[in-house]
Amino acid sequence: MAAKAGKRVTAADVARSLGLSRATVGFVLNGTTEQRISEATRDRVLAEAARLGYRPHTAAQALRRGSSKLVLLIIPDWPVGFSISECVEEASHALEAEGYSLVTQTHHPVGTARPLWELLDPEVVVGFAPFNQDELAAMRGCGITKIIPGPGHSASPPDPLGLHDGPRLQVEHLHTRGHERLGFAATSDPRLSTLVESRLTAAREAVASLGLPPLVVRSVDAPDTAGQAVHDWLQANITGVVAYNDDSAARTIRAAVRAGHEVPADLAVIGHDDNPYAALFLPSISSIRIDYAGLGRHLATLALQAATGRPLPTDGVDAATAVVARESTES
Amino acid sequence: MAAKAGKRVTAADVARSLGLSRATVGFVLNGTTEQRISEATRDRVLAEAARLGYRPHTAAQALRRGSSKLVLLIIPDWPVGFSISECVEEASHALEAEGYSLVTQTHHPVGTARPLWELLDPEVVVGFAPFNQDELAAMRGCGITKIIPGPGHSASPPDPLGLHDGPRLQVEHLHTRGHERLGFAATSDPRLSTLVESRLTAAREAVASLGLPPLVVRSVDAPDTAGQAVHDWLQANITGVVAYNDDSAARTIRAAVRAGHEVPADLAVIGHDDNPYAALFLPSISSIRIDYAGLGRHLATLALQAATGRPLPTDGVDAATAVVARESTES
DNA sequence: CCTCGGCGCTAGCACGTGCAAGCGACCAGG
DNA sequence: CCTGGTCGCTTGCACGTGCTAGCGCCGAGG
Questions:
Q1: pTM exceeding 0.90
Q2: Looking at the complex, does the CB of residue A259 fall below 8 Å from at least one CB of chain B?
Q3: Does the N-terminal peptide bond of residue A283 adopt cis geometry, omega within 30 degrees of 0?
Q4: Would you say the CATH fold of A165-291 matches that of A66-157+294-317?
Q5: Position with higher pLDDT, B157 vs B195
Q6: A112: Cα within 13 Å, side-chain hemisphere
Q7: Domain boundaries, chain B
Q8: What is the CATH number of domain B165-291?
Q9: For residues B92 and B70, what is the distance between their CA atoms, to the nearest angstrom?
Q10: Interchain contact A136–B (C-beta under 8 A)
Q11: Which architecture does CATH list for A11-56?
Q12: What is the structure's pLDDT at A76?
């Protein structure tokens, strides 16, 4: 059944075993339509390949064809929780259907580990947030040209990470609950800066379009700054806080409760990302649920589009972001 | 400076540009000691390679040398939080020093995405928990023989994930605080079963060695089962709960507080993994901090050992697990 | 019977690299 | 002047695959 111990089964082994040429085997296994192969031969080859446990040598394929059929997904070091794996799973699936494979790397900004694009030379590199100039330069230096989101399309049109929809929903949720004066809980963590900025901007737009007074922005990283932030907000008659994510929301709530205030009576707070801990918190935290599966499919479509060139019907983005209402905004 | 647009710079390009043979270039770039190369030539080659921006073609190297120099780390889909990236980063670093690279894949058990070992053919596959029979069979089918933890060494001697130290520390921590009758908060999530079992076993051993009454084990997955668990524990005069992880701890605390009890006065709870949210919870959750950096170095050592064959001095495992005492166990 | 076309298959090159074997030049010793 | 050895470099093969060009055979048409 299996091969002799330790040796790899090659297409040549299959050919030899059948008394055919290696080319024929290659044609069958690749399903080449250029070349006509009789039904009988095709079946024999497939059966023998299966019997011997033939696996194409990826490195040889990549060498010959010049492309690795790999897509590298750079995952930021955010505490986005494990829901991201659902996104990865879905994207992998969609890519596999086209013969591509997904490799992920969590990018540790402070670290110096060599980025994977240097040695996997993937066809496409996909990120959740735009890459900075240094990263772009490094990729170009490795001959990688297909990058998403590219410098061209500054923000991917369909808004992959709910950069606009999420904050808008947060603001609208608080507004419907009667909150007019809103604060924004940010973090000063530099590695999050781009995403914080994106979400803050989106929240500002939502506030403006509703005709509400401008957001009062504060950082809530450490307990003391969070306490100060809560103090400032209440001083300014803020009654609702849009948090950058569930972590910021938790910090805000913690500081408010510790200062003797009631959540949501004195201060309503809504987070973002629907981290699993949001539901466990006391009080449980209202949040924005992101459709990670849809996001994964979307990213895969983008990647395939870039890889193959053909535009692929962008069959309606189905990444549905939604509010999950919990105790931190409901009485 | 850089290459002509779109074309890859090969060792042959460097050689041609200098009027040397490709072999010479290869010897210099590989630092081969078998072959003597004059200092002058060596410098010229290195300079020209740098000038042209030469990058070895990984696929070609892998093909020729027969090994991919890749280590695949399978990360379980646990909500272990993002600290795991520190572990990955550290392991990458240690592996790079030996010319190996680390690729990670979060294993989504319910998913059907093809495992990466099928197409990267890594030299070693490393996991946090032992692999099951199906996975082992699949790997062997792809010709992967070096697997950690292997079926041979059932549990890696130095206890990578704090499988023994962590639970022992939890029990001892509660015991020092005067708790004699202890409960164990588990989860019935099947994908966590192996780790839960490991930690439960370790906790039982610790309890036994201290001469305490046996652990009362309950699941705390859903709010109602958690409520029942808390009820059972208090009924049995349990005063301290060892939680499988911080998530279980949070669920336990939530249920206790909701039932009108005080934490830690009525029930002290200690979690595991020191998830970032443990410190934010109300009350903040005592936990076990794992030395992820040390764990990463350790895993890298194990992988190199398996890859190269030479035993590599296991220079003292420095993975230090420690208790982080917080409000959920301190008055 | 000869020719011609198509079907089914094969010979062989190329991809970029690592490395074994070999080859010319130079130098010292006899 | 010849010989043997070493240094520095080159020729060339192998890795496993994708795919182009071509080859033999067989049946049909003239």
A1: no
A2: no
A3: yes
A4: yes
A5: B195
A6: 4
A7: 11-56, 66-157+294-317, 165-291
A8: 3.40.50.2300
A9: 10
A10: no
A11: Orthogonal Bundle (1.10)
A12: 77
